[in-house]
Design brief:
eleven-stranded mixed sheet; two-stranded antiparallel ribbon; about 40% helix
């Protein structure tokens, strides 16, 4: 009978498309994963992968074998994870990903209480605005938006993120406020270029009546991430399309003013991404439950949107 290590090396290599990515996920060396798969192929008497310099491709036999064993492996690992959760203290390194601004402002403040409850867990935070391959990167969980959802991953929505048009009072001095999103073209704007596609980010805003209109900006500066937009806006360089949680404290202090107070852009959900529930180790399960409860108790979903209280115009 095949060992669990051989079967797991095969399934994770098939999911990630490389021995190296599977090794990161399994906390093994690429050589060990390759040996496990080779031993499985020898024992079965068939070639499961076609190997090339560009990666791994399942053979026809490999495709059939993956469909047969994948669900069984998930069930076994789910049983192991359940035993670990109920019989032992959550422990180990917890590899996490989040956008820098949101992560540092709203997730890091949750860590003292989390670590006090689970002192044997060591969070390993990676703050990055770029979409990541969570499985290939070996991440236990990620919080953000725009991730592709590969097989074996689930997303739990925490709230929806709204973006609004803001500027500094000094920048707006002597200028007419726009009446609609198209009117932003008359003012200097700070725009964002996607680090992945190289394209300028575009927005469509919606008002309380449900009308939609594209945002038109006249770039005075381009940045490569959202966390740079609101500091540049605070400096009075132009109008910025800024996420509500970044803008809110500066609107309350008067450092920024909201333009187009009846308009906002819904850029989608902020979600907690993690592997299928059956596969969750104890350290990941308690983190997912802790963050979900913290968002509910602290009403953080409201902080993300225009519905979290009046925003000063």
């Amino acid at each position: 009978m095949e060992t669990l290590a051989n079967l797991e090396s095969f399934v994770r290599s098939a999911e990630t498309g490389s021995f190296s990515a599977a090794a990161r996920r399994l906390a093994l060396t690429p050589a060990a994963v390759s040996r496990n798969v080779a031993q499985l192929e020898r024992n079965l008497g068939v070639r499961l992968f076609q190997r090339s310099t560009r990666g791994l491709t399942l053979s026809e036999a490999g495709e059939r074998f993956l469909q047969t064993v994948q669900s069984g492996l998930d069930s076994i690992q789910g049983a192991i994870a359940d035993i670990t959760l109920n019989a032992g203290q959550p422990a180990g390194v917890l590899k996490l990903s989040a956008a820098p601004g949101f992560g540092m402002d709203y997730l890091l403040p949750l860590m003292p209480a989390f670590l006090a409850r689970y002192p044997a867990v060591t969070p390993d935070w990676h703050f990055d605005n770029r979409p990541l391959d969570l499985i290939a990167g070996g991440f236990d969980a990620a919080i953000g938006g725009g991730f592709e959802l590969p097989p074996g991953m689930v997303a739990r929505e925490l709230g929806r993120l709204h973006v609004i048009a803001v500027a500094s009072p000094a920048f707006m001095r002597g200028k007419r406020r726009p009446k609609d999103p198209a009117g932003l073209a008359e003012l200097a704007g700070i725009v964002m270029r996607s680090p992945m596609s190289g394209r300028i980010r575009s927005y469509v805003m919606r008002n309380s009546a449900g009308a939609e209109m594209a945002v038109v900006q006249k770039p005075v500066m381009t940045v490569n991430g959202p966390d740079a937009i609101f500091p540049a806006t605070l400096l009075g360089l132009g109008v910025g399309m800024v996420a509500v949680p970044h803008a809110r404290p500066h609107l309350e202090s008067g450092a920024l003013v909201r333009l187009l107070p009846d308009w906002h852009c819904d850029v989608g959900p902020v979600s907690l991404y993690f592997t299928s529930q059956k596969l969750l180790p104890a350290k990941t399960r308690v983190f997912v439950d802790f963050v979900t409860e913290a968002f509910r108790a602290q009403k953080l979903a409201q902080v993300l949107s225009i519905h979290g209280g009046d925003l000063e115009s």
